[in-house]
């Protein structure tokens, strides 16, 4: 698939180079600070499918509108392969937004990954799934009495960055970057140029000679 090739290219370039390329194309904040993962060697890449979380309110928690409802609302039913499920924090990045049980439904859908601006439970279980997972850290307590999913397929905020459905997400151990889909190929091309520039600069630095008296 084409996205497989793009994912390989993004992983080869790495987060820092992609962030530099985004800075040359767009003036808005696009970088996500480093997060935790059950498998930090597994990078994440794909178009965003979003779920917005809010602080829990009993009177607004609609019956039947559980995580499953918003999961398929964001990803489609059946879900399209290669997507990144993005969960906003709802103002509580320190509590669990899900775990191995809820996300088990994603293991057979071809999901590229999950990016949560909150914590997730069951890192051992998530590590064994077919998709990459990045979040604020591991949780041990259920968080459903603190945050709740409230909307899907809407723009959300992740670590101070606006993520719109369809934006491309790249995440590795260094951090992440959010790339508008219309700019993806331009950003990747500029990132290739930056990578070549940096390789040439490093070559020049390695060939430097100390100046007398330095």
TrEMBL record:
Query: What reaction gets catalysed by this protein?
Result: 4-hydroxy-4-methyl-2-oxoglutarate = 2 pyruvate; oxaloacetate + H(+) = pyruvate + CO2
Kindly list the cofactors needed.
a divalent metal cation
- Segments spanning the bilayer are none
The record's InterPro entries line, in alphabetical order, gives: RraA/RraA-like (IPR005493), RraA/RraA-like_sf (IPR036704)
Cite the EC number: 4.1.1.112, 4.1.3.17
| Top EC class for this record | lyase
Q: Which Pfam families match?
A: RraA-like
Summarize the subunit comment: Homotrimer.
Family under the similarity heading:
Belongs to the class II aldolase/RraA-like family.
The function of this protein is:
Catalyzes the aldol cleavage of 4-hydroxy-4-methyl-2-oxoglutarate (HMG) into 2 molecules of pyruvate. Also contains a secondary oxaloacetate (OAA) decarboxylase activity due to the common pyruvate enolate transition state formed following C-C bond cleavage in the retro-aldol and decarboxylation reactions.
Q: PANTHER family of this UniProt entry?
A: 4-HYDROXY-4-METHYL-2-OXOGLUTARATE ALDOLASE 3-RELATED
Query: Per its record, how is this protein called by name?
Result: Putative 4-hydroxy-4-methyl-2-oxoglutarate aldolase
Organism (species): Streptomyces carpinensis
């Amino acid at each position: 698939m084409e996205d497989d090739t793009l994912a390989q290219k993004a992983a080869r370039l790495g987060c820092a180079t992609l962030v530099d390329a985004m800075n040359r194309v767009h003036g808005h904040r696009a970088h996500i600070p480093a997060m935790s993962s059950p498998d930090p060697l597994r990078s994440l890449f794909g178009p965003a499918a979003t779920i917005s979380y809010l602080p829990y309110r009993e009177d607004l928690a609609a019956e039947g509108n559980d995580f499953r409802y918003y999961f398929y609302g964001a990803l489609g039913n059946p879900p399209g392969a290669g997507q990144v499920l993005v969960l906003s924090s709802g103002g509580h990045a320190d509590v669990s937004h899900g775990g191995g049980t809820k996300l088990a439904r994603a293991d057979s859908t071809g999901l590229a990954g999950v990016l949560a601006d909150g914590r997730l439970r069951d890192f051992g279980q998530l590590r064994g799934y077919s998709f990459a997972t990045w979040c604020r850290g591991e949780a041990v307590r259920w968080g459903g009495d603190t945050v709740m999913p409230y909307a899907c397929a809407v723009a959300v905020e992740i670590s101070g960055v606006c993520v719109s459905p369809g934006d491309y997400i790249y995440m590795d151990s260094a951090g992440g970057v959010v790339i508008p889909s219309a700019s993806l190929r331009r950003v990747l091309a500029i990132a290739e140029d930056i990578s070549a520039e940096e390789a040439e600069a490093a070559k020049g630095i390695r060939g430097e000679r100390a100046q007398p008296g330095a």
